[in-house]
Amino acid sequence: MASDLRRARDEQRKERRRGELLSVAAALFVRKGYHATIISDIAAEARVGQGTVYRYFKDKRDILDHLFEELVHKVFEQFSEMTSRPPSNEAEYRAASVEALRKVVNVLDGERDLVHLIIREGPSIDREFGEKLAGLYERLAMLARYYLDNAIAGGFARQCDSKIVSQALIGIGVWMANLWCTGRLGDETPERVLSEIVDLAFEGFGQSGNANSLAGTHGHNNGGFD
Amino acid sequence: MASDLRRARDEQRKERRRGELLSVAAALFVRKGYHATIISDIAAEARVGQGTVYRYFKDKRDILDHLFEELVHKVFEQFSEMTSRPPSNEAEYRAASVEALRKVVNVLDGERDLVHLIIREGPSIDREFGEKLAGLYERLAMLARYYLDNAIAGGFARQCDSKIVSQALIGIGVWMANLWCTGRLGDETPERVLSEIVDLAFEGFGQSGNANSLAGTHGHNNGGFD
Amino acid sequence: MASDLRRARDEQRKERRRGELLSVAAALFVRKGYHATIISDIAAEARVGQGTVYRYFKDKRDILDHLFEELVHKVFEQFSEMTSRPPSNEAEYRAASVEALRKVVNVLDGERDLVHLIIREGPSIDREFGEKLAGLYERLAMLARYYLDNAIAGGFARQCDSKIVSQALIGIGVWMANLWCTGRLGDETPERVLSEIVDLAFEGFGQSGNANSLAGTHGHNNGGFD
Amino acid sequence: MASDLRRARDEQRKERRRGELLSVAAALFVRKGYHATIISDIAAEARVGQGTVYRYFKDKRDILDHLFEELVHKVFEQFSEMTSRPPSNEAEYRAASVEALRKVVNVLDGERDLVHLIIREGPSIDREFGEKLAGLYERLAMLARYYLDNAIAGGFARQCDSKIVSQALIGIGVWMANLWCTGRLGDETPERVLSEIVDLAFEGFGQSGNANSLAGTHGHNNGGFD
DNA sequence: AATGAATGAGAATTCATTCAT
DNA sequence: GATGAATGAATTCTCATTCAT
């Protein structure tokens, strides 16, 4: 029936406008900052009335939530197709790491502004959003830790505190992502960064083997902390 | 003279109250968030009138600036006394790294809330503050890079892109500092974290030597990026 | 279309409300004084929210600017239709003066409060407004001087310092306007005032001719001034 | 006794400081405007504490009152010594007018800023001050009218509405005083201005005698006013 | 559904005045 | 008497949200 067609068209138009509002808001949040961006900015930039914004989103915070979910969805979408067979030697582990990072980079590459926004503003929006973001980071850390534990158990990763190390890896990732989004990595290509980071993670920057390792000495030596 | 005594006492009281206001503000910024904290909160918590806050600080932003400068000052104070002789072998490098980190940890340990505040809110206050903070991180990265370059030149660090690696190290540091400040490191002691991180940085978590390194292969293989 | 009608109606309503706010503000400025009138007074008197005032005017100063421009516009509108042929004898000059003053009086009569407000508060609002007002007075003085110079050149006005005399005429005008607006002229009709002033300007109040004139003696006799 | 000397010295110092505060306040009122000048400006400029200002004056308004009274006192002081014999012919009238104006000018010359301040800000301070100032002007107008009525009665001034004409004369006086105080009279000397004004008042700027006078026709002709 | 005018709660900021020292 | 730190009432201005059209 005609009304079905019409309804479909309306639905489509609505979806398009919602997307338009999201992208306009993201751009403004990035440019002016989340707190400094006011609803009327978004409405004006999207060429709609202020009231219209409220037809699509509950409030400003709701817009950010949608942007966040969108990003999270895109990232995890990538991993849904990954083979879940865990690596059984260092070469496989390294290859899998590189593959996973490449996927992430590919997603983030198309959403630089959004990523920058989330990393920069996310922790300071409010307690709830901060915890949601921290939860995301935690999930990523758990993932990294899972693979690291597997490698340690399989004997192709050094004995180490996988909880700490996996967090450190996430720290590197978030930090580099942020630098890259804000253009502070200069002309380094993502691939270059990626390989350097994987090398650092697997080999460190030292020359020797395990000589002088401090690991394992803690507890015996508190290093002078009070 | 009496008036001198009076002036000295006034000066002292003023300094005490300024400090009181700063610490109250820091606590509130941490608890409620910078944006959600309003001047009257600070005044009420410090048991003074709103106007009094304005006698000591231009506005809310000015309070944060003072907190930031205070922290930066305390951190760099530690390094002013460090021997500047660069390490000449890996053991020295590692020892110097540990010593420097311990100093930083010692400072930050007394300012957990403040550190958390700056890391969390700093990037989203406004452009100016964000750049000031980024400048601090950049300085730290330069410092790390300087030592790394020295080690590479001296043959006791692996050939690597020191720009990327040093940034990664800063990323680890900021990340761990943040986790620690927010209590998300659980019962791990700073010393334990420190040694794990240094081990990771010097040796990586891999077992083998340089096997399978990706470094140097970039350019020949863009990894599928478009 | 319906939306056109709607827009037109909205436009009209907006214009009406703007006018309402202006007249309410003018009344309050006159009654309480500009500085003593606060935005919430205006909003309350106009039965609108405070925020609404800010939808129409940038701030209190902006309201005054609009009132001033409105008045200036109304005054000069009157002169746009006047014949520009300059008078060629004293009778014509006198008639033209009377006609011009009548026009001004007719305009001001409908805006007593506003005129009073501008004369009273104008000079003390701020430097900018003061200069704008002084500029208006200066324009009026130039106009008077132009006609006076013409009359002197034509031999139907006495030799005199037209710069000083024209300023004196403006002084009389502003002063009488102010007295009249504030009701301090009692039951004198504007027409009566007008004719007295014109007589004074053309003939002075003396009986004799030019006897005893001081004009032209300055320079020879500085009258004791140092 | 010593305490008498001391008391006298204290009294003197107090008077000096009071004068200092008044002159500092006047300068600030002129430069920044009465409303824009705050107590702490005055205190800072006079190099005293804010509280000290309140030892000498009740509040800001009180300072202005004192400045006003000071000026009024100085002006009327001049007239206290004037012979009170009224003029008996036009020449005497003219001479007396000139003499009186010269006295006024001599006083005002030393108080330009103060005069400017009073003329500019006086009417807008508050109702009370405005009325006080209007009262002063009214007194001056009464004085002028008294002499004018005397001259009309004596036959050496034209029949005219002395109420209106005397107000017009005050208008000229205040206007010229203001122009002069603000430097907008350029290089015209006070004496020059004075003589031009007296000429204008006694003779008008017209050439003819009473030709075309409108005076006396009012009432028969309302001039088109509605 | 779309609009944008209206709203008023809420936050920042100022400054006259008080008062302990 | 002098001081200037402290105060909080008062005012301006913003902006998220509602709602009549």
Give an overview in words.
- 4 copies of one chain form a homotetramer.
- The first copy, chain A, is mainly α and 226 residues long.
- Chain A folds into 2 domains: 1-57, Homeodomain-like (Arc Repressor Mutant, subunit A); 60-226, Orthogonal Bundle (Tetracycline Repressor, domain 2), CATH 1.10.357.10.
- Helix content of chain A is 69%, strand content 0%.
- Chain A has 9 helices and no strands.
- Chains C and D meet through α5, α6, α7, α8 and α9 of C and α5, α6, α7, α8 and α9 of D.
- The structure holds a DNA duplex (21 and 21 nucleotides).
What topology does this entry show?
4 copies of one chain form a homotetramer.
Chain A: H1 2-32, H2 39-45, H3 50-56, H4 60-80, H5 90-109, H6 112-121, H7 127-153, H8 162-181, H9 190-203
Chain B binds a DNA duplex (21 and 21 nucleotides) through residues 6, 9-10, 13-14, 17, 38-40, 48-52, 54-55, 59-60.
Please supply descriptive tags for the structure shown above.
homotetramer, 226 residues, mainly alpha, Arc Repressor Mutant, subunit A, Tetracycline Repressor, domain 2, 2 domains, 69% helix, 0% strand, elongated, disordered C terminus, DNA-binding
Total helix count of chain A? 9
N-to-C CA distance of chain A = 78 Å
* H/E topology pattern of chain A: HHHHHHHHH
Biggest beta sheet summary of chain A: none
Radius of gyration of chain A: 22 Å
**Helix proportion range of chain A:** 55-70%
Structural class of chain A: mainly alpha
Oligomeric state, counting identical vs distinct chains: homotetramer
Largest interface: C-D, 81 and 82 residues
Using the 3D structure, state the CATH architecture of the largest domain in chain A.
Answer: Orthogonal Bundle
| Name of the CATH homologous superfamily of the largest domain in chain A | Tetracycline Repressor, domain 2
CATH topology of the largest domain in chain A: the name is Tetracycline Repressor, domain 2
Mean of the pLDDT scores of chain A? 86
Report the top-level CATH class of the largest domain in chain A: Mainly Alpha
Uncertain residue ranges of chain A: 210-226
Shape assignment of chain A? elongated
How many domains would you count in the coordinates of chain A?
2
